[in-house]
Design a protein that fits this description.
By secondary structure, the chain is an alpha/beta fold. The chain has a single domain, classed as TIM Barrel (Alpha-Beta Barrel), CATH 3.20.20.370. It has ten helices and ten strands. The strands form three sheets. The protein has a four-stranded parallel β-sheet. The structure holds zinc ion (ZN).
Length: 263
């Protein structure tokens, strides 16, 4: 189970200069996720955006005290493939230093904003290894207009550098890998279909790498003007998502990525 801890506007408004003007809702929405996990005895990896950690160090402490794994989601939520390797390294290093100063521990895992380690930015995996990460969970082996490597390996595996790659789970069908394990797919698909995908992977002896964001259960978040496709993806079915997440946590047993990867 993994949570990308970012506020509702971080993925909608890429310019950090705009962020102070938005209503900050990350503490409340993350606490709701923590409550769901406490009620269902679920442990998860929280990939925390550095911008959130710098603003709300107490929230990072709350997550750590609840027994979850703290990992990095970078600092400024920029697409990896739109940065130079130097900019990327600076952004990730800053997030590591921020998290270490709060938790006293070096994060072992990283997830890129927008899953944006793609064929154009595979160099980022070497940067992560050089920064000391044990694993990455940034590759979604699907086709999407903003991210994805459709033919990439579906299961966790070690790269030649020693870095473990733990892709987001997909259901392999004849023509494509079906995304289902989080985000808008989880919100849009009916629960019986989600459950069937989990059971199918379980029958193959696989474990599901699932992702979610605190804003996805925050129905009260402000609505801002967006292109229609982004508006649909972002605001779709926020209300039922909390109960769905809780039902999922009751039905299946989850752990942190470090646990599942035996790190
Ligand atoms: Zn993100």
């Amino acid at each position: 189970m993994s949570i990308d801890v970012e506020d509702w506007y971080h993925c909608l408004s890429p310019d950090p200069a705009t962020w102070p003007s938005f209503e900050h809702r990350i503490v409340e929405s993350t606490r709701r996720v923590l409550e769901i996990f406490a009620r269902t005895s679920t442990r998860a990896t929280f990939f925390i955006l550095g911008a959130v950690a710098e603003r709300e160090p107490g929230l990072v402490e709350e997550i750590q005290k609840a027994g979850h794994e703290i990992a990095s989601h970078g600092t400024e939520h920029r697409f990896v493939y739109r940065q130079t390797p130097e900019e990327f390294e600076r952004d990730v290093r800053r997030s590591v230093e921020t998290l270490r100063a709060i938790t006293g521990e070096t994060p072992r895992g990283y997830r890129a904003p927008y899953f944006s380690i793609t064929l154009q930015s595979l160099w980022a995996l070497d940067t992560l290894r050089n920064l000391g990460f044990a694993y990455d969970s940034s590759i979604h082996p699907v086709h999407n207009h903003r991210y994805g490597i459709p033919g990439a390996a579906r299961l966790p595996h070690a790269l030649p550098s020693g870095l473990i790659e733990a892709p987001i789970s997909t259901l392999p069908l004849r023509l494509l890998n079906l995304p289902f394990a989080g985000g808008v797919y989880f919100r849009a698909f009916p629960m019986f279909l989600i459950r069937r995908c989990f059971r199918r992977l379980e029958a193959r002896g696989e474990r599901v790498v699932f992702y979610f964001h605190p804003w996805e259960i925050d129905e009260g978040q402000p609505r801002i003007p967006l292109p229609w496709s982004l508006r649909l993806r972002h605001y779709h079915a926020l209300g039922p998502a909390g109960p769905k997440l809780e039902a999922l946590c009751r039905e299946f047993r989850f752990g942190t990525l470090s646990e599942v990867l035996n790190l």
